[in-house]
Amino acid sequence: MKKQIKKNINQRLFFSDFEKNRLVLKSVTQNIQVKKQIRWKLQLKFNRLPFNSSLTRISNICILTGRSHSVYRFMKYSRIQLRKWASLGILPGITKRSW
């Protein structure tokens, strides 16, 4: 599991390095007011970017356990870890609910 967690962290860092380049290239290539030749050259440059720098390559896994199912995106914790930490009172503003 530790290998999977490290891989996910590296993918997130790799994405953050190329995020600005991707956004700029994509916005310019979709702009119709720019000349076709320039758009074509920028599209080729966009296609040469690494595949792992895309957002869709990042998997949503728990940062503590590496669990890939039922992970909350806003905290990056699985439901099991979220409940455990909430019960201990470590997470501020989240309490265990009982009827």
Can you give me a brief rundown of this structure?
It contains 3 helices and 2 strands. It has 99 residues and is mainly α.
Q: Using only CA atoms, what is the Rg?
A: 20 Å
Query: Would you count the extended β strands for me?
Result: 2
Strand order of the largest sheet: 1-2
**Which shape, going by the Cα principal axes?**
elongated
Order of helices and strands: HHEEH
Proportion of β residues?
A: under 5%
Quote the distance from N terminus to C terminus: 36 Å
User: How much helical structure, as a percent, in the residues?
Assistant: 40-55%
Total helical segments: 3
Low-confidence stretches: none
The major pleated sheet works out as: 2 strands, antiparallel
User: What's the number of structural domains?
Assistant: 2
Structure class:
mainly alpha
Give the overall pLDDT as a whole number.
Answer: 86
